[in-house]
Design brief:
Order of helices and strands: EEEHHEEHEHHEEHEHHHHHHHEHEHHE
Bound molecules: adenosine-5'-triphosphate, magnesium ion
CATH superfamily of the largest domain: ATPase, nucleotide binding domain
Distance between the termini: 30 Å
Helix content: 25-40%
Strand content: 15-25%
Radius of gyration: 20 Å
Number of strands: 12
Shape: globular
Structural class: alpha/beta
Number of domains: 2
Largest sheet: 7 strands, mixed
CATH class of the largest domain: Alpha Beta
Amino acid sequence: MNKAQLYMGLMSGTSADGIDLALVDFATNTPKLIASYYQAYNQDIHQKITSLYNPDINELDRAFKLDAELAHLFAQTIKQFLQQQQLQPSNIIAIGNHGQTIRHRPNQPHAFTLQIGCCQTLACLTNIKVIGQFRQKDMALGGQGAPLVPAFHQMVFNDNDDDVFVVNIGGIANISYLPSLNAIKQGKTLIGYDCGTGNALMDDWFVLNKAEHHSTKHYDENGYWAASGQAELKLLTLLLNDKYFSLPAPKSTGREYFNPTWLQQHLANPSIKTLNLSPADIQATLLKFTAITIANEIKSLSNSAKVYLCGGGVHNKTLKNELNQQLTNYEVCLTNHKDIDSDSVEAMAFAWLAYAYNKKIFSNSPAVTGASKKTTLGCAFYP
Ligand SMILES: Nc1ncnc2c1ncn2[C@@H]1O[C@H](COP(=O)(O)OP(=O)(O)OP(=O)(O)O)[C@@H](O)[C@H]1O
Ligand SMILES: [Mg+2]
């Protein structure tokens, strides 16, 4: 038997809900998820992160203080995970640290993307080599710097006989299209992009309307509140008309675009204001909007495919039902059907990016991001 080659992937997504860790063994050709771990953020950290999504006062101090604070939180979580797994830091070859995105502006003359959760601090605190800053080089090469996961999806979910989609429903939703051999013969290639908002707007609207549902959660559990309302066609059409959805790929987006201000601007439209929609109707509309934006992208790329879902949105039963209804001709299931826990796919991908860095494997996909060449992503930070 090959000796284990253990890497750890660390993801803190745009929902700012918590830290996802994946322990992955790369001893064979197929990456094997050994264990995963989740540490939720408390309200204070959640608020500190989300308050940095848009320009505001004293950003620099707040951002870089949080850069260090998150590294400490990441390190604590890693120590607990190692203890649970009865492992030592020396058992882990490297940690792939995505960090926490607080700003992503790929479509401007001086494009940039900013992930915090200091890799150097993390390496010193854990005594493990950290690979991080994965998005920078792709962006320096003219790419979107996102999504970075399609290359990993292709390795794990590809199926020669069928077209495959992997849909990650996080704060923002992204899809990877893995064409079948037949489709490749017809000129189709690997594609991946952010298809729009995932849970983000539903989370925002849920928290803004606490008085309506009395839940202390930051998300609409199972979409029950959305299910108590009725989706409204006029509002749905207005949201779907947003210019992001007609942009060609490569494209990526973030919380600096799909945020409460974006939603309020649409709700303030005179044609919507006169409808006097209830907050639950608006939540129902946002849920349908999320499902349709995902389904539209899939339908535009293939008319028969397997669709693997992952990310926190798969726990929203109402959203999953709506997606099934929108995709009746497709085989829709969770990534768990391929033995990969749907909550661990993203973190696993960052373990792979760390592995790819160590092995000098090209890890970006120019066809996905628009970068001018293939390259190995990331920088190394040593204890
Ligand atoms: N039981 C549930 N019911 C409804 N929604 C849920 C449930 N569990 C999780 N979620 C949603 O999933 C979100 C977290 O998902 P996830 O961690 O995949 O997103 P993320 O951190 O933004 O990651 P990404 O980097 O992919 O954007 C929560 O904010 C919530 O909206
Ligand atoms: Mg998350």
